[in-house]
Design goal:
Blueprint lengths: L9 E7 L18 E6 L2 E9 L11 E7 L2 H4 L8 E6 L2 E11 L1
Antiparallel strand pairs: 1-4, 1-6, 2-3, 2-5, 3-4, 5-6
Length: 103
């Protein structure tokens, strides 16, 4: 798990399915990986996230997160509020994220 002791850039809504790499009992709050990638202009950019309400986060249902992009300065002018982007866990596409609010 990467440190969430950082400046978050957005509030977002993450809607992901369970990765085929995870055991059946794992929920979003139990996942030890708290970083993923978005696909933007056919490039992948990593972000770290923190679930706002971990007890109620479920796969295949949107849940709110705070997110910080690793190389924010490279993409800040390309990201759009209410923009929807595909999310990858490594090579596996697992869902989407919607950027709701700039922090």
């Amino acid at each position: 798990m990467l440190s969430t002791n950082r400046k978050f850039h957005f509030i977002g809504e993450l809607n992901i399915k369970k990765s085929k790499l995870l055991k059946s009992y794992v929920t979003p709050k139990d996942d030890e990986v708290n970083w993923m990638f978005i696909n933007l202009d056919n490039n992948r950019y990593s972000f770290v996230y923190e679930i706002e309400d971990p007890q109620n986060a479920k796969y295949n249902l949107p849940f709110r997160i705070k997110l910080a992009f690793t190389f924010y300065n490279l993409i800040e002018d390309k990201l759009e509020l209410d923009g929807i982007y595909s999310v990858l866990r490594g090579e596996e596409e697992i869902g989407i994220i919607k950027l709701i609010e700039l922090i």
